[in-house]
Amino acid sequence: MKKLLFIYIIPALFLSGVYSCNSGSKSEEQLNHSLWYTSPAKDWNEALPIGNGRLGAMVFGKTEKERIQLNDDTFWSGRPHNYTNPGAKEHLDKARELIYSNQYAKASKYIDANMMGNPRYMQAYQPLGDLWLTYPDTGKISEYSRELDLDEAIVKVQYKQDGVTYTREVFSSHPDQSIIIRLTSDKKGALNTDVAFSSSHKYTSEARNNNLLVMQGQWIGDGKNRPLIAGVEGPGMRFETHLKVDNEDGSVNAKNNQIQIRKASAVTIRLVTATSFNNYKDISADPEKRCQQDLEISEDKSYAQMRSDHISDYQNYFNRVQLNLGQNDSINNLPTDERLANYKNGVTDTQLEALYFQFGRYLMISGSRPGSQPLNLQGIWNEHTTPPWGSKYTVNINTEMNYWPAEVTNLSEFHEPLFDMLDDLVETGGEVAQKHYGCRGWVLHHNTDLWRGAAPVDGAIWGMWVTGGAWLSTHLWEHYLFNGDQSFLKERAYPIMKGAARFLLDYMIEHPEKGYLVTCPANSPENGIPHVKGRVTVCAGPTKDMAIIRFLFNACLEASSILSTDESFQIELTAALAKLPPLQIGKAGQLQEWLDDWDMEAPEFQHRHIAHLWSLHPGGLIDPYKTPELAEACKVTLKHRGDGGTGWSKAWKVNFRARLHQGDYAHKMLAELLKNSTHPNLFDVCPPFQIDGNFGGCAGIAEMLLQSDGGVIELLPALPKEWAKGSVSGLRARGRFEISMEWEEGKIQTATIESVNGGSCSIRSLFPIKISGPDGKDLKARPDNSGVISFPTQANMMYKLEIFN
C-alpha cells in the first residue's frame, strides 16, 4: 500500500540530568545521556573522565579519600629530539634488492639494523599527578550515587553520612581553563575536608595564603629503556598545578603542605595546570605564569556563573546530535555497570548502545579542542608513567580511528588538533623523507609523539611503513568534503596533501617482475608474511599502501582542479595512477592483502589488523553498488578473519559491515565490542584501555544510520532489526548536509535535509521519493539508472522527503 509521509523537523529533547539519590532511578532520556553507579570506582577503569581538550581528569567518587587523577595533554617524557637517522638512505637499495629477491627475513633484519630512527623508540604521554580530598569524619554511608551527566559534562557524587547529604560536582571547563570542584553539605557547617597533591614525578607541594595550594614538578629521566619507550637521562618538561579554595563559610587554613577545610557548608575549588611546553622544539615556557593567568580568568566568577558558562559552551556542540534507538522496559532504570553486565548476558538494551554513541561524542569534545594536542592512544586520560605502547600517536589505524566520528557526528571543529599536528609533521617528516630516502615532500611512519618524530621506530616489523602521513592527509580532504571550505583547502589541506603525495611519487619504484609502481620497503600493518618463518612483515606494494596512495592521488587531482593550480603535478599524478596495481581477488575469493596471493597460507589468519580492507572503509574505493565483486571479496575476507580481536579491531569491523550494508552483522560486532571489550566506565578494552575503540564504535553507529561516501547520501543503509524504531537528528553528510529522520518497522517515516552550503544534493533510495523545497513545491527530481536522485539546493534551507514504501 502506498503511504504518504510528510516530513518535519525533529525537535531535540534535553533534560537537566539531575536525579534524586533517594529514587535510585532515572528517566528514559537520562538513561541515554548518563553513566551512573551506586558505588565509588574500585579502580581507574571504573572512574569517570572529564576534560576540556587540554586538561583531563578521572574522578573516582570515593567517600573517605577522593582521588582525582590529573592529566595535561602537553606533559610527555623526554624533551625535544630529532629522530632522523642520517645514514639510513645508503641502505635503501640493498633493502629493496633483498625484498625483490624474496629474501624477506634477511631484508627485515637488514632494515632493523640499519634504517630505524635514532633512537629506535619514542617517548610516552605522562600523568601529571593526583588531587586528594580526605574526609576525616567517619560514619555509615547510605544512598550513594555517582554520575557522569553527558548533557552537562559534569560528574556528580552524592551520599548521606550521619544524616547529612554531601554533594560533589566536578567538571573541566573550557571557558575558564580549569577543573572546578563544588563541595556542599545540606547541614550548615558539616563539611570537613583536607586537600592535597601528589605526583609520580619529582615534585614539591606548598600551601600559600591559606587557600592556595601549589604543586611544582618536573619529568626527569633515568636513561633506562622501558617497553617501546626510549631511555632519556636528565631533566625534561616542567609542570605546575595551582589550586584555590573559595569557601562561603567555615574556615580554610594551610597546614603541612595541604589545605584544611573545616565547618563549611559550601566550597568551590578551582584547579589549573600548565607545563613548560611551547612547541615540539621548545619547552622553555613558564608554567607558573600560565597557572596564574588561568586562575585569573575565573577570579571574579561565582560557582553558578562558571557552571553555566561551562554547560553553555559544551552544549553548543553536544546538543547538535540526538539519537533514539528505542525504549527497553526491561532495563528498569539500572545503573550503567549493571546494564552492561546484563547486556553481556544477552539482555537487549538499545538505550545502552545510544548511550555508548553519545559517550563517544562526549569524549571527542572533552579530549580534542581547537588548540589542544590531538587525541593519543588514551585520549587525554592516562595514569601510568610507562603506559601501554607509550600512549603515543599510532597512525597505522589508531589515531585515524580517533577522528572517524568528528565529521559525521557534527563535531568538525574537533578535528583541528590533528591538522595542527600535521603542520609540525610536514617539517620533521620532510627531513626524514630527504635523509632516509632521498625524496621530496614529507613522510610519517607508524608512530609519532609530542616531539613529532617521523622516522621509522620500534623495529622493521612495525616501523617500515611509509604511508602514515598519506593516511592522515586524507583526513584533510574528508574535512573539506564535509564542509566545503575552499580557503581551508587552498591554505591548509592541499599543501600538506601535495607534500605527502610528492614523497610517494619519489619513493615508489617499479616492481621488477610485475611492472607496477609500488612502495618498497613496506608492510601490511602488522601482519606477517604467511610463508616466511618468524614474524616478518617487510614486502613490496601491499594492498593497503596502494589503496591509500590511490585515494590520496585522486584527492590531490580533484583539489588541484578545484583550485586551478599545478597542471604539471596533475600530469605526474595521473601517470603514476595508471601504473598502480589494482585491487585483486585471491583464489579463495578474498580481497588480497599482498601483491601475491598469500592470504590463505597465514599462520595467524585471524589477525586483528585487516589493513587491506582500507578501500572499503574508510577509503570508499569499494562500494556494493559500483564494485559488487570486490564487496563480496571483502565479505570473504571478514569471514576468514573472524569476529574477535582487540576493541579497536571490533570497532573497525562495525564500520566494515555497515559499508557492506550488513546491518545485523554490524550490530553483532557492536554487541561484541560492548560485551567483551568495554570497561564498566564504558572505556574501550584493547586490552588494556585504549580509546580508539570508543571512537570507532561511535563512528560505526553513525555509519549504520547514514552514509555519504562518494557524495551520495544513503539513509539507514545498515539498519539492524534491533533498531526497528528510532530517530536521529543532526548527523552530517558530505557536502555539509544535516540529516534528521524517524523510522518505524525499519522504514523511514519522516526525513529532512538541511543544506548548509547549498549546491547539488544526491540521495540513493530503494523506494520512490518526493522532494519538496523550502516553499513546499515538488522539485520533480527523478532517479537516474543507478537509483540516485540529485537536486539543487539553496544555502541554509530545509528540504523535505516524502517516501513511498
Automatic annotation (TrEMBL):
One Pfam family of this chain: Glyco_hyd_65N_2
Single Gene Ontology MF annotation: alpha-L-fucosidase activity
Domain Glycosyl hydrolase family 95 N-terminal: 35-279
InterPro entries, per the entry: 6-hairpin_glycosidase_sf, 6hp_glycosidase-like_sf, AFCA-like_C, Alpha-L-fucosidase, GH95_cat, GH95_N_dom, Glyco_hydro_b
Taxonomic lineage from the root: Bacteria, Pseudomonadati, Bacteroidota, Bacteroidia, Marinilabiliales
Native species: Draconibacterium aestuarii
Protein name: Glycoside hydrolase family 95 protein
Keyword Hydrolase: yes
Keyword Hydrolase carried by entry: yes
Domain annotation Alpha fucosidase A-like C-terminal: ranges: 707-801
Signal peptide segment: none
Keywords: Hydrolase
Domain of life according to the entry: Bacteria
SUPFAM superfamilies with a match to the protein in the record: Six-hairpin glycosidases
Listed GO biological process terms: carbohydrate metabolic process
Residue ranges occupied by any Glycosyl hydrolase family 95 catalytic domain in the UniProt entry: 302-705
